Amino acid sequence: MSVLSLHIEESTPVEAFLPHGLLAIILLGPPGVGKGTQAGRLSAAYNIPTISTGEILRAEMEAGTPLGLDIQETMTSGNLVSDNIVCEIVQNRIVKQDCAKGFILDGFPRTLAQGHILQEFLRANGIKLRVVISFDAEEDELVRRVLERAAKNPEKKRAEDTEEILRDRLAIFYRETAPLIDFYGQQHLLLKIDGMKTEDIITAEIKDFLDKVIPFK
Ligand code: AMP
């Protein structure tokens, strides 16, 4: 199947549940910057689901599906899974009923190619991106946070939670993902967030912004 082709059940007209004006949000930022925490809070505050490609891919690995087995090595070494795989996952997820009011993309897009494919998909489905929230923080702080999180929650520690792999993942972020900041900046969609601030201050800043642009209450 081509990456751009839509994967929608015949009986369900997309327009029926993907109206204009829904709250489509992208969270962009390096590992450890706090996207997941903010995604959870925004999800609860605006009653829209978070689509985390990392979580979906980890679930595939844990379930031992053919896809999970296929991506295992890439994931545990901290590299990016192919654009085709993640784009198809996201496209299939966005057309689900629970995304009708909006959705938060956490960890997607992660390459310019994914950004272009997403843009085309959203355009084809009449979905307007509301905002791309771009987080950043100092690299040493990001490493410290991820390692601390792994040490405090050994049950949640991942194979890729080592300083070496983390530094590689950060390099991949700045090389592959950071160009998306300009991509969305040129479209005037960016909200820049200083990830060194406290979680509560960050949530307040984002909500303040969203409450001004929100298309529904
Ligand atoms: P995350 O939980 O977002 O840090 O993602 C964990 C891992 O899943 C990443 O290191 C990648 O191997 C893979 N992954 C998640 N999202 C993407 C994406 N959009 N593109 C490529 N690989 C991804």
Written account of the structure:
With 217 residues, the protein is α/β, with parallel strands linked by helices. 51% of the residues lie in helices and 12% in strands. It contains 9 helices and 5 strands, in the order βαβαααβαβαααβα. The chain has a 5-stranded parallel beta sheet with strand order 2-3-1-4-5, with helices on both faces. Helix 1 packs across helix 9 (199-213). The model is unreliable at 1-20 (pLDDT under 50). The structure holds adenosine monophosphate. Adenosine monophosphate is lined by residues 31, 53-54, 57, 74-75, 78-81, 86, 107-110, 114, 169.
Radius of gyration: 17 Å
Output the strand order for the largest sheet. 2-3-1-4-5
- If you average the pLDDT, what whole number results? 89
Can you summarize the main beta sheet? 5 strands, parallel
Oligomeric state as shown: single chain
DSSP strand tally: 5
Q: Would you tell me the structural class of the helices and strands?
A: alpha/beta
Shape descriptor reads globular
As residue ranges, the low-confidence spans are: 1-20
Which secondary structure elements does this structure contain, and how are they paired or packed?
Elements (H helix, E strand, L loop, with lengths): L22 E6 L6 H12 L3 E3 H11 L2 H11 L6 H12 L7 E5 L5 H13 L4 E8 L2 H14 L10 H15 L1 H7 L4 E5 L4 H15 L4
Parallel strand pairs: 1-3, 1-4, 2-3, 4-5
Bound molecules: adenosine monophosphate.
Adenosine monophosphate binds next to helix 2 and helix 3.
